Amino acid sequence: CGVFGAVNVQDAANFVALGLHALQHRGQEAGGIITHHEERGFQSAHRFGLVRDNFTSAKLMETLPGSIGIGHVRYSTAGSKGATAIRDVQPFFGEFSMGGAAIAHNGNITNAEAIRRELIERGSIFQSSSDSECIIHLMARSIQKTHAERLKDALRRCEGAFSVIAMTRTKLIGVRDRLGVRPLVLGKIGDGYALASETCALDIIGAEFLREIEPGEMVVIDAKGVVSSRPFERTSPRFCIFEQVYFSRPDSIIGGRSVYETRRQIGVELAREAPVEADLVCPVPDSGTPAAIGYSQESGIPFAMGIIRNQYMGRTFIEPSEQIRNMGVRLKLNVNRALIEGKRVVLVDDSVVRGTTSQKIKQMILEAGAAEVHFRIASPPTTWPCFYGVDTPERSKLLAARMSEDEMRDYIGVDSLKFVSLDGLYRAAGELEGRNDSCPQFCDACFSGEYPVAPSDMIERGFEL
Ligand code: SF4
Ligand code: MG
Predict the structure, then answer these.
(1) CA dihedral in degrees (44, 3, 180, 273; nearest 10)?
(2) Closest Cα to atom 4 of ligand 1
(3) Ligand 1: which atom is nearest the Cα of residue 243?
């Protein structure tokens, strides 16, 4: 998901809508905005679909007045059951003795089911099926005197991954879990401030990027400025390495590094680790493009657009139903036949999850007359599901959990298939010594099976580590 907030700006809702539009790659199912205005109080709108199809109408935006606002774009992840209902769409709002507050959450709370059970037994009335709703109910039960203190109380009970943006009548609050699994950044715009999942959402509104919210940090922001605190026990951070590979936008800056540059460097590592003789290096667009550029630069094999993407399709993976996702590949990608015919092609993609994409692409590219097809993947084999806010299927559906690399090569039906090593990926992400196995610098559980936080709800449901 993507989160965005702005405070002390004129017509905050417009900034929030723009910020969410820049974060649309993080969630395309639905979006919501809440604002506060001195006279008209809290106002909200929650809609299915894209930001540009909803939060651009003057009629709707007029219903969201005020100089403070937050918003959320949603894609449903591991914990969510069934289809999204409009009441699952964030931000969530609650009335407290000291006034209303709203929250928008990116990540996944891994003990949310246990918390929910306990709260329901004690009388809480849940509205949604979302793990994030726990936060509002836990805040309601806290005895602290400010929203920020209540939010701290609530989040101290939550395990897993959370980058949260909250708002009260006058204050914008940002928090990251102590591992800092999901991103969150702070920007300055005029006399106001903005919080966003990624820096690309600051760029779109012309805000200056100040810094990242640190893992385990809370910032409380109002017209007077930013107050920082450290509500959680300190530990070494474990940022999601898959944000670097796929999830974030390539024009965002993470950890002081360009995501594009990290991805290009993954391609360089891949070319060193898994060279092959070929005529062309082609990306599977768009997610494989920067790595393909790196592979081409390092290997000297010319880069070419052998597969063309229909720009009017969204991210295939984020389509919740398997059927749509299966169709999706052809709706979204087509082979550039004139270029491919008779050529030995290196295809670069970011990841193999179920293997559906690679299989379909291989088929299209052979039909177009390619002489050889070599797959190079810009992440290690995905062998474990994510429980921290990225939607991966259950383990039995992960190709790499069932097959060796050679079996996957034969199953997909290509001449060769190679994945970047975990160390290569770490080097590309700026860790020149590679992965520190005794204390890894990132979360890489979907590749290594080493979960930095035990996914307790899932373990209770029978998931075996
Ligand atoms: Fe990211 Fe993978 Fe960790 Fe999930 S399990 S947070 S996708 S690195
Ligand atoms: Mg892709």
Answers:
(1) 160
(2) 386
(3) 1
Ligand 1 near 446 CB (within 6 A): yes
Q: Please tell me the pTM assigned to this model.
A: 0.95
Annotated active-site residue 282? The verdict is: no
Strands 172-176 and 218-222: antiparallel
Alpha-carbon 324 to chain mean position: 21
Encoded tokens for 328: 């999706």
Residue with tokens 């295809």: 347
Indicate which atom in ligand 1 lies nearest the CA of residue 445: 5
For the chain, the domains span: 2-237, 258-460
The structural architecture, per CATH, of the domain 258-460 is 3-Layer(aba) Sandwich (3.40)
ipTM: 0.93
Contact (Cβ atoms closer than 8 angstroms) between residue 447 and residue 383: yes
CATH of 2-237, one of 3.20.20.70, 3.30.470.20, 1.10.600.10, 3.60.20.10: 3.60.20.10
| Ligand closest in space to the Cα of 289 | 2
Q: Does the beta carbon of 445 sit less than 6 angstroms from any atom of ligand 1? A: yes
C-alpha distances (whole Å) from 110 to each of 248, 454, 460 are: 22, 8, 11
Q: How far is the CA of 287 from the centre of ligand 2 (A)?
A: 5
Nearest ligand to residue 248 Cα:
1
Determine if ligand 1 sits within 6 Å of the CB of residue 426. no
Q: Is the CB of 268 under 6 A from ligand 1?
A: no
Give, for ligand 1, the residue of 77, 390, 435 to mutate: max count of ligand atoms closer than 8 Å to Cβ.
390
Catalytic residue among 1, 134, 200, 282: 1
Euclidean distance between CA atoms 185 and 43, whole angstroms? 25
- Supply angle C-alpha 191, 197, 203, rounded to 5: 55
User: Digits of tens for pLDDT over the chain (465 positions)?
Assistant: 999 999 999 999 999 999 999 999 999 999 999 999 999 999 999 999 999 999 999 999 999 999 999 999 998 764 455 678 999 999 999 999 999 999 999 999 999 999 999 999 999 999 999 999 999 999 999 999 999 999 999 999 999 999 999 999 999 999 999 999 999 999 999 999 999 999 999 999 999 999 999 999 999 999 999 999 999 999 999 999 999 999 999 999 999 999 999 999 999 999 999 999 999 999 999 999 999 999 999 999 999 999 999 888 766 555 666 666 666 677 888 999 999 999 999 999 999 999 989 999 999 999 999 999 999 999 999 999 999 999 888 999 999 999 999 999 999 999 999 999 999 999 999 999 999 999 999 999 999 999 999 999 999 999 998
Q: Using a 6 Å cutoff on CB, does residue 387 contact ligand 1?
A: no
